[in-house]
Every structure is written in C-alpha cells, then in structure tokens.
Amino acid sequence: MAWIVLIASGVLEAVWASALGASKGFKRTRPTVLFVVALVLSMAGLAYAMGSLPVGTAYAVWVGIGAVLTVLIAAVRGQDKLTPLRTALLAGLIGCVIGLKAVS
User: Domain span at residue 21?
Assistant: First the structure.
C-alpha cells in the first residue's frame, strides 16, 4: 500500500510543480489553489509512505517520479523540448527509480 501512495504522491508532485509555474508567481487563482492542494496531498502521501519505506528510497522515488512527469507535462504543453539525449536521460532516471523499488 505504501508504494501505491508513494507513486500517487510522486504524480501529485508533478501536478504541484506544474501548477506553481502556471500560477505566475501566485497571481493566478486556479493554479495557485491547485498548487496548494496538490502540495499538501503530495507531502502527506510522502510522509505516510516514509512510515514503512526507507526514507532515502521513498524520497528518491518521489522526486524521480515528480521530475520525470514534470518534464513530460512541460513538453506536452510546448514549454520544454524533448531531445533524444534528454529522453535517454529521463529513461535512465526511470530505470533508477525502478531499480530502487526492486532492491527495497
């Protein structure tokens, strides 16, 4: 159960990071509200997962999922470019997250 919550929290990290950028310095209401809600839920889920998973592993997986998804969201929105090298590096990051799960 902790892994499922951790994965969902990683997804929410990408949501709050993207909403933070869209809030334009907290000047836009909807993205700001989304940022706050996603941030609180993401942190709560991370805290829950750390109750039964190693702290370093849980944090690395959370950050990895959030980072990869944030880049992908930005690429879909046309705010970032996915070059072959960046894609390979993101794939490597995903591989490291899977590896951490496998050895935990």
Answer: 2-103
